[in-house]
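Hi team,

Filling in the usual template for the complex we talked about on Friday. All components are listed, including any nucleic acid strands or ligand strings, so the model treats them as one assembly.

SUBMITTER: L.P.
PURPOSE: interface mapping
COMPONENTS: two
RESIDUES: 545
SEQUENCES:
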Amino acid sequence: MTEAKSKIAERQVNESKKPILEIKNLKISFNGKAVLTDTSLTLNEGENLVVLGKSGTGKSVLIKCVVGLLIPDAGTIKVFDTDMTSLNKKQFSQMRQKIGFLFQNGALYDSMTIKQNLEFPLVRLMKDLSKKERESKIVTALENVGLPDVLNKMPSELSGGQRKRVSLARTIIVDPLIMLYDEPTTGLDPVTSDEISQLINDIQKQLKTSSIIITHDLRCAQQTADRIMMLDEGVIHMEGTMEEFEKSDDPLVNAFFNANIN
Amino acid sequence: MEKVKRVAKAIPRIRDATIHSVKKLSDKTLHKKEEASNFLTDFANAILFVNLVIKETFSREFEFKEFLRQCYMIGNKTLPLISVTGAIMGLVLTIQSRPVLVEFGAESMLPGMVAISLIREMGPVITALIFAGKIGSGMGAELGSMKVTEQIDAMEVSSTNPIRFLVVTRALAATLMLPILVLYADALGILGSWAAANIKGDVTLSLFFRQAFGSIGFIDLIPAIIKTFLFGAVIGFVGTYKGYNAGRGTESVGVAANSAVVLGSLLVLVVDMIAVQITDMFV
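RESULT (copied from the run log):
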C-alpha cells in the first residue's frame, strides 16, 4: 500500500471516529480588522488535521483561541463536548491541561535549564508525582524527541531544531490528548523539518493524540496530514486530502501549491 | 476698480488658506485628543494591573520558591553597585562639607550631619535611582523579551498564572530588598565618610560611629525606611508593568526597559517629595 493510500485509509477510519474538538462560526478582529470572519472546523479523534494558508490569514489566531490566549468575539469552541467559551477560569485551566501547544519559536524559558523547563509544567499540572517519577518522565520525554543528553544545558546552547524538539518534549510531558502545532517547521532546514514532521507522526501514534498542525510548509503537510483545510480571509476555503488538494483547479490552491513547489 | 479686482482675486486664496488652517487645527486637536485618550487608557490599565498584582499577592498558590530566587537575584545583582555608590556618597559628602564645618568650628558635627543626610535622603533616593536603573530596566527587558518570544503565553498554556509567577514575585522582591540595600548603602556611606574624614583629620572608627549614630533618632530612621518600601514597590510595579505590557516586536523590549527606568526614577522622586511633605508634618 502506498503512503497516500494508507493516509486515505486512515482518513476513512478517522471520519468514523468521534469529533473531539469543534470550532463553530468563530469570529475575531483586532483594532476593527476582522481576522477570522466565520471559521468552523472539526478535529476527529486520532487524526492529524493540517491547516494551510498564507501568512496573516489567521491560522495561529485560530489555535490561540482554542487555548484561551485570545478571546474570540463570537462563535463556540467545544473540546470533548465542553464549550470552552462558557467555562470559568478554573474550569478552563483544567480543560486546557488536555491540550498541548507547540509554539512557533519553541518558547523555552531562557532563564531555566532544559531540565527546569520540562519540570515546570510537571510540577504544576501533575502535582502527585514524586521527584523520582518526575525525573523519569523528563528523561523519557527527552528520549522520545531524540535528545537525551541536553538535560543540564541552557536553551541558548541549543540549535533551532533542538530547541523545537525540547519544546515538543515539554509539551508532551504532561500527556495531552490534543496537540496544537503552530508552524512546527518554520525556520528549519529541510532535513530537520522532516525530522520534526516524523516526530509529529510518532507522537500521534505513541500517545494517541489528535493534532491540528498550522503550517504553510507543504512538505510538512504532505508528511503529517490525514486531512487538510485551507484558510483564507478568515474562512475555511477548502477541505480535503493532500491528493484532492493537488488535483484541485481552485486558483487559490493552485497559486499556493505552485508557489511552494517553486 | 483695480482694487476690487485684486480683492476678488485674493478671496479664493484666503478661503483656501483658512480651510487649510482649520483642517490643520482640527487634525492637531484630534491628535491631542487621541494622545489624551491613550494616556488615560494607559493609566487605567496601570491601575488595573496594580489591582491584579495585589490580588494575586495574597493568593493561596503563592510562588514562594520563585520569590526567594528573585530576592537573591535582585540583592546579588545590585550589591557591588550599591556598595560602590554607598561608599562614594559618604566620601563625597564629607569632602564637600568638611571645609565649611571647619570654617565655623563645627567639625565635630560632621559625623552626625553625614549620617542624617545619608539616612534621611541621600541613601534612600540615590540607592533607589541606581536600583531603578539596574533592576527596573532588567525587569522591563526580561519580561518584554519573554512576551516577544511567547514565553509568557507558554506559561499560561501550562496553567501557570504569569502574573503570579513573574510579576508578583519580582515586584514583592523589589519591595522587600530595596530597604535592606538602602540600610547597607547607608552603613557603607558612613564608613566612606569616616575614610574621608581621616584623609585630613584623625578620628577613630568607634568615635565616628558613636557620634554618627548618636545624632540619629527614630524620626530620621522610620520615615526613611517606610519610603524605601514604597520606592521598591514603585520600581517593581513599573518595571514589571512595562515588560509585561510590551509590544510584540523586538524594538518593544528596548522601549520597555527604557521606559521602566525613566518612569521608575521619576516616580521615585515624586514619592520622595510626598513622603518628605508628610514627614515634615510630624517633625
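MY TAKE: The longest helix of chain B spans residues 2-57. Chain B has a mean pLDDT of 90.

Thanks, L.
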